[in-house]
Structure formats: C-alpha cells, structure tokens
Design brief:
CATH architecture: Up-down Bundle
Number of domains: 1
Strand order of the largest sheet: 1-2
CATH class: Mainly Alpha
Strand content: under 5%
Length: 189
C-alpha cells in the first residue's frame, strides 16, 4: 500500500469518487467542485456548521433554550436550501412562508429591549462569545446569499431569497440581543 488508491476504506462514506475534482449533485449531474452550485452548497454547509457552533455556545445557558430551538429550525432550513441548491428541487426542509413569519417574529422579539430603547447605531462585531459567533453567522449568511444568487443567475426562488435575506437580519439582531442579555455594552461606531 504505497498510494491513496490502495488504502482500505475506513468509513462507508469514504468513496474516493471526488478525488479527481468532480462531484455528483443531487440531481445526478457530474460537476466540478468549483462549480457555482457547489460553491453555494458549500457555503450553506459552512453556515450550518457556524450555526451549530453558535448553538453550542447558547446551550450552556438554559435561559436561552428558546434561541437554541430557533437555531435548530434554522439549521433544518439550511439543509433544505442546500438540497435545493444541489438540484433536489422539492425538499420538506425548505423554509416556507410560515418559516419566514417565525423568523420575522423572532427578530421582532430579539429587538425588544425592556427599557424601550431601540438599537440605533452601528456596532463593532464582538462582545460575548455567543454574540461574536452570531456576527460570524451573519457574514457567512450574506456570502451564502451572494453564492446562491450567482449559482442561480439571480433567479433564486422568492421564498428562499426572502428567507436568506431575513436570516442575516436575524443573526444581527441575535448578536445585539446576546450582548444586551449578558450586559455587555457594544462598541458603537
């Protein structure tokens, strides 16, 4: 055994089929791994991993269970978006109108401050670890939005476009909420 092709497969998901720079999308099309659709799917997957890390930070505080539940829903929706981008048009996990309403409602709840003051200025990303991770999710979400638009030549279905756009807003609101929740004063610009 002196090269990779002679190495026994240790895991059932290791196939070696992509070793030549190509992959197969959900619709059976063989495409290069740098194809815009695969770039979009990879960015969706990257965001989903970042959301998982955010959930891990949040799960350390039982008072934030409602946030963790919303993030779990977001992760499921991201799987649906990834499935769509990879060519599996119908997916029960894709966000629908009700999912968009739940996301918008969550944003409204995050933006309510007990003292009645609204968030009103630009702030530097950071603060508490969970808030900083929410900011990372926001920026990756915006890149995911761009990649999905590129991959669909700007013809991303309206329900997905609206959800992705609102999702970035959600992560921004969540970052501000978490810093406020933990009484960290944001650094305003």
């Amino acid at each position: 055994m002196n090269n990779f092709s002679d190495t026994p497969k240790a895991c059932s998901f290791v196939t070696g089929n992509g070793d030549n720079g190509f992959t197969t999308s959900a619709d059976g099309t063989r495409v290069r791994k740098d194809d815009p659709r695969i770039e979009a799917v990879g960015t969706v997957d990257e965001l989903n991993s970042h959301v998982g890390l955010l959930r891990a930070h949040i799960n350390t505080d039982e008072r934030l269970n409602h946030i963790s539940e919303m993030l779990t829903e977001v992760q499921r929706s991201l799987f649906g978006i990834g499935a769509y981008m990879s060519g599996a048009c119908a997916s029960r996990l894709q966000p629908d109108a009700a999912g968009l309403v739940r996301l918008e409602t969550a944003i409204e709840l995050l933006c309510q401050r007990p003292e009645g003051r609204a968030f009103s200025s630009f702030v530097l990303p950071g603060g508490m670890m969970s808030a900083a991770q929410a900011d990372v999710c926001r920026t990756v979400c915006r890149r995911m939005e761009r990649r999905c638009l590129t991959a669909t030549d700007g013809k991303l279905p309206q329900h997905l476009s609206a959800y992705i756009n609102r999702l970035a807003d959600y992560f921004f609101a969540l970052s501000l909420y978490l810093n406020h929740f933990y009484q960290y004063t944001e650094i305003k610009i």
